[in-house]
Amino acid sequence: MTDTYTCAACSGTFTKGWSDEEQAAAAKELFGTIPVTEMVTVCDDCFKEMEERRRVAEGIPLEAFRDGRDPFATRPIPNDE
Ligand SMILES: [Zn+2]
After folding, report:
1. N or C: which end of the chain has fewer CB within 10 A?
2. Cα 73 to averaged position of ligand 1 atoms, centre (Å)
């Protein structure tokens, strides 16, 4: 297993801080069930930039996005009180 990757956005070479399994799991959590073959690897900086573009494109308030709430959830939030 190689421990470096090339960023698909800026073409920089970076050291992997995760295993392929961890990456696949994280990607699934973020993006759902996109086939691994359709995914590209980008560096942290490019990822943040992409996330910011997605946030703006979808009109998600910065505060909600940073709080780590699921900004794409359309289901009602359960009311436990
Ligand atoms: Zn990059």
Report:
1. C
2. 28
